[in-house]
Structure formats: C-alpha cells, structure tokens
Design a protein that fits this description.
Elements lengths: L1 H4 L5 H17 L1 E2 L2 E2 L3 H13 L17 H15 L2 H21 L12 H12 L10 H22 L4 H26 L1
Helix pairs in contact: 2-3, 3-8, 4-6, 5-6, 5-7, 7-8
C-alpha cells in the first residue's frame, strides 16, 4: 500500500490544484468564456508551485502499451463530438514532425519525447485537452492554426527547456493566442 501511495500527490496539493483550475475558469475570462484550459492551468500551477510530478495522462505509462488503443477510441469519440479533428491532426502532425526532423538531423535528444509516458501524455492532451470547446476555436481554419501553434510551442519548449511542463505551456499559449485574437476582433468591430 505504501508503494502505491508514493505515486499520488498529498491531498492538500490535489485540493489546491483543483481550486486553482476552477478559479481560473471563473476568473480569467473574456466574454464569459475561460481563456485557459482549466485543467492545464491547474496542472501547470501545481508543477510550478509544488514541484509536483505529472501523471495527468491517466497513468497510462503504468499500463501495457496495447491499452493506448482505448485513448485513441475514446479520443476519437470526444473529438468527433466536439468537431475538432482539424485541431487534433494539426497538433499531432506538427508535434511529431518537429521531433522526427530533429531526430533525423541529430539536433537535441528527442528519444524520451517519442516513447511512453511522453507520447501517452501528448495523445491525451491532443484528444482531451486541446479539444476543450470553450478554450479552443470553432472554425476549422482557426482550429488548424491553434493546433499548429500548440504543437509547435510544445515541441520547441521540450527541445529548448525539457522538463514536464512543455505540453501544458504549448496549450496555454495557444489558449492565450485564441483569446488575444478574439479581443482584437472585438476592438476592430468597435473601430469600424
């Protein structure tokens, strides 16, 4: 039992992470919509403030590899329901393309990013967090830009800084881009 408990954060850290996620959803808004994906915001907060480990991809790294099929199946259902396939494909395409190119030309150590648990976390993020309707665009053209931005920032952040936060940072910066774009659109309408 003690061995199992070592994988979990203390209850106080979990409580603070959830509280920050919920607060970000209700306090950091534009036009009644949250700017940042609340889960990503809370997890990044936890990583920075508590130096917590990251197992937000559902501990898939502890399970047999073949179980990743369930991430694809449920991810497909979620992505279909929210109509975000262009966003998911753009994210995964640019994310893995950058790592493949860097690997081929021998720049940086990308081996960890291309195996469990990092691949698991990238897939989980793509299907379940990048597709969050309130914090990601609805139009296909904007979905593609959003996915490309989140994937590129995530991969570059990993290559430059390493660490555990690169996927969350990529998503949150793409969220900020979407909010900035919406705010600029509002200003342009008022000016016209």
């Amino acid at each position: 039992m003690h061995r199992l408990r070592s994988h979990f954060a203390p209850p106080s850290v979990t409580f603070c992470t959830v509280a920050v996620a919920i607060l970000s959803k209700h306090l950091v808004k534009v036009k009644k919509k949250p700017i940042f994906n609340p889960a990503a915001f809370g997890l990044l907060f936890s990583l920075i403030v508590f130096s917590s480990g990251q197992s937000w991809w559902g501990s898939l790294s502890l399970l047999p590899v073949w179980l990743i099929v369930f991430v694809f199946m449920t991810g497909y259902l979620v992505t279909s329901k929210v109509n975000k396939f262009p966003q998911v494909f753009a994210f995964l395409g640019v994310y893995f393309a950058i790592f493949a190119i860097m690997s081929l030309i021998g720049v940086g150590d990308v081996t960890d990013a291309l195996r469990a648990p990092f691949v698991n976390s990238a897939l989980f993020l793509a299907f379940f967090m990048v597709t969050d309707p309130p914090t990601s665009p609805a139009k296909y053209k904007d979905q593609i830009k959003f996915g490309l931005l989140a994937g590129a920032i995530s991969a570059v952040d990993y290559l430059v800084f390493g660490g555990l936060a690169y996927l969350l940072i990529g998503l949150l910066l793409a969220n900020a881009w979407k909010a900035w774009k919406a705010a600029n659109k509002k200003v342009m309408k008022k000016a016209a």
